[in-house]
Design a protein that fits this description.
Length: 158
């Protein structure tokens, strides 16, 4: 008898995607998306929703996406990652990818997306690499007083 790779229910179960969005460990300002399963056209809407929620919730401007338990991701998943980057990059934010398997990491290299995303082995490693929060930088600039000049302004020379 020929092995067909399992029943239709088993194949469907392998394709299921679960996502969880929460503040990153010890970093209430940075949000983490944990994905588990396969990310493809049939379920990318759930992945998009989770990533969009993290982008909306982050106060640091940074989002960490944990792909440790993602066995497969097609172009629709990579497109979701790019969309998130386009949303947060103008404000100085970044998307950090964690736990990419060999196939996903290879696709990132082939497509040169590895030049856009920072890749880390663990959430802890990504957290150590986080730049200062974007919102904190903006608040610091607002709190600074303008420079005070001790000499009178000289007339403009025309």
């Amino acid at each position: 008898m020929l092995d067909d790779g399992g029943s239709q229910d088993e194949q469907q179960q392998r394709r299921q995607l679960t996502t969880n969005v929460r503040p990153a460990t010890g970093q209430a300002e940075t949000y983490l998306v944990v994905a588990d399963g396969e990310i493809d056209l049939s379920n990318v809407a759930e992945f998009k929703e989770a990533v969009s929620l993290a982008v909306e919730q982050t106060r640091s401007g940074h989002v960490i996406i944990d792909l440790t338990d993602v066995s497969y991701m097609d172009s629709s998943g990579f497109g979701t990652l790019l969309s998130a980057t386009k949303k947060i990059r103008p404000a100085g934010g970044k998307v950090f990818l964690v736990g990419c398997n060999d196939v996903i990491a290879r696709m990132l290299r082939i497509t040169r997306l590895n030049t856009i995303f920072d890749l880390y082995a663990s959430e802890e490693e990504a957290l150590r690499a986080l730049p200062p929060p974007v919102s904190a930088d903006l608040e610091l600039e607002e709190e600074r007083d303008p420079p005070v000049s001790s000499s009178p302004a000289s007339p403009a020379i025309g």
